[in-house]
Amino acid sequence: METVFERECLCQYLYALAKENGHSMDDLSQRTGKSTTELQAILDGKISPSLDDFILIGNAAGMKITINQSFPFGHQRLINMMKLPK
User: Fold this and answer.
1) Rounded distance, CA 9 to CA 3, Å?
2) What range defines the domain where residue 47 resides?
3) Cβ-proximal residues to 61 (8 Å cutoff; 6+ apart), any chain
4) Spatial separation of the C-alpha atoms in residues 58 and 73, rounded to whole Å
């Protein structure tokens, strides 16, 4: 479970990365399609971004984000059943 502290640290990291890469708040707003007010609230850790928004902002800030999805052990049978025959 995510804590407020973890969310704030992650958002502060995104903001620091954006500034390090020379992106202003207006630039991030333009690159993401989000208002500067909403971006500021996200980057200040006041609101939690959705995963889509986190990826969008991260990419705009210069971060390469990779999602690695793992399935619980019990789901392996279902995954095997979903594979197409060769």
Assistant:
1) 10
2) 4-61
3) 14, 15, 17, 18, 21, 23, 28
4) 31
Return d(Cα 64, Cα 83) in angstroms, integer. 29
Q: What token pair was written down for 21? A: 């890469």
Kindly state the tokens that stand for 32.
């993401």
Residue 31 structure tokens: 């690159």
What's the CATH code of the domain at 14? 1.10.260
Residues of the chain with pLDDT below 70 are 1-5, 7, 66-86
8: which 2 tokens?
């704030």
Residue 86 has a pLDDT of: 43
Write down the residue that tokens 């990826």 correspond to.
55
Q: pTM for the complete prediction?
A: 0.65
CB of 41 closer than 8 Å to CB of 47: yes
How many structural domains are present in the chain?
Answer: 1
Amino acid at 47: I
